[in-house]
Amino acid sequence: MRALVISDIHSNLPALEAVLAAAPQYDAVWNLGDIVGYGANPNEVVELVKKLGGIIVRGNHDRACSGTMHFSDYRNLSWNASAAALWTQKDLKPENAQWLSNLKRGPLRPLGRKVACVHGSTWPEDEYIRSPEDASRALSKTRAWIVFSGHTHFQGGWSFEGRKCVRLKPVYGSGPDAVRYDLLLSQEGRYVLNPGSVGQPRDGDWRAAIAVFDDDQSLLTWYRVPYKVLAAQRRIRRAGLPKGLATRLRKGQ
User: Fold this and answer.
1) What is the pTM of this model?
2) Domain range for residue 46?
3) Per 3-state DSSP, what percentage of the chain is helix, strand, and coil (rounded to 5)?
4) Read out DSSP for 178-218?
5) CATH number of the domain that 195 lies in?
6) pLDDT tens for each residue of 135-186
7) How many domains does the chain have?
C-alpha cells in the first residue's frame, strides 16, 4: 500500500496541481490539513481535495476560514493569517465552508495502530512539532509507529530508537528541478514525519513538498516539485490579499 501524504496546501492551486501531476502511483491520500488560508484559490482547492478523497485531518486554518474556530484561538494567528482567513470566509462557497467545518480532528488512523495522522501534534492538535522534545511528547500520546504531522511547513522529522533521537532532513542537490529523497524506516524505531507544505514552504525551498509512504517496503520518499509560483503570486495580489503572502512563496520562507 502506497499513500500520498500531503499537508498545508493553503489555497495554492498551481502548487497542488503540480504535485498531483508529479506524484508517483499511490493507493490512498492522507491529507494533514490546512487546505485553505493564505492563497487565492480556496474554492478550487477544496473541490479538488474533495475529489481526491482519502483521510483528511482538519487544520487550524480550515477552522478559521470556515468560521468554526473559537474566538480566543484567533489570537494565535498572525496578522497575515487573520486577514487571509477573513478574506477566505467571504470567498468560500457555503457548501465548501460547510465541508471544511465538518473535517475531523486528528489523530486519524488509516492503518490502525501503525500510523497516526495529525495536523500539528497528537495533543493538542495545533501544537507545533519543532524540536525533539515536541516530537517525543507527540509519540507519548499514541502507540503508533509513525506520526505524520504537518503545520510547521518544514519537510523532515525525527526518529527514536531507545534513547537515541535522530533529526531527519532530506538533502537535495541544487537546481530548480523535481527531486526526491528516500528514507528506509526501521521496525525497531518510531517516527514523527512531516511531508512539508504543498502551498507555502518555509524551509528555504520554494518548491512544493509532499511525501509518499510505502507500507510494504517500510519506505518514505520526500519530494520537492517546482510549480508556477509566479501565477500563484499574481493571484494573491489580484485578490487583494497581503502582499507578503505572495513574496514569501518565491523565497520559501
Assistant:
1) 0.95
2) 2-251
3) 35, 20, 45
4) -EEEEEEPPTTSEEEEE---SS---SS--SEEEEEEETTTT
5) 3.60.21.10
6) 999 999 999 999 999 999 999 999 999 889 999 999 997 678 999 999 999 9
7) 1
